[in-house]
Amino acid sequence: MTGRRVLVTAASRHGSTAEIASVLAAEIAGCPAGRDAALSAAAVPAGAGPDPASWDAVVLGSAVYGGRWLAPAHDLAVRHVADLRRKPVWLFSSGPIGAPPFPPDEPYDVGTLTALLPVHGTRVLPGRLDPARLRFEERAMVTAMRAPVGDFRDWEAVRAWAREIAGVLAAEEPAARREPMTPA
User: Name one Pfam family in it (predicted).
Assistant: First the structure.
């Protein structure tokens, strides 16, 4: 059986979203559905400019600031829209903090990208706010907003979503036998 390769790529300002991408990639490759389907996965920063054309599926994510994705993730999706339309794609956003996570809404960019791409699914995942990792102006904003500080990431939810993705890929026929996908 030929293995299927999954690109997990994300834009991260202070490392929290990059850590989520790494856990997603490790879980996709390591879960039973992933091993049975000969899935491999790698986490590559969106800013490194990975080319989705050479991958069989893509999980694309970004940290969210001011309700928007970071430019490296959004730009990667727009630049490679033709390639991404031909393969399974999932989107995730990281950033809500507190209990319950705030803000609860999907970022603006997710709606734009789901209109361009045939996305299999989206997730908004809680993030981390560590003032020690912030620039001076970011710390001032956090203080002014009285934002809750801490790590709100739910690692079991991240791993469960990765297993869900691996299960979908294990059940799908490989891209070589599939018609190109077009957005609905």
Answer: Flavodoxin_5
Q: How far is residue 46 CA from its own chain's centroid?
A: 10
User: Can you tell me the distance from the alpha carbon of 97 to that of 147, in angstroms, rounded to the nearest whole number?
Assistant: 8
pLDDT tens figures, 28-59: 998 766 555 689 999 999 999 999 999 999 99
Domain ranges of the chain: 4-173
14-49: buried (b, 16+ CB within 10 Å) or exposed (e) per residue? bebbbbbbebbbbbbbebebbeebebebbbbbbbee
- CATH number, domain 4-173: 3.40.50.360
Nearest residue to 4 via CA among 139, 126, 176, 143: 176
pTM, two decimal places: 0.84
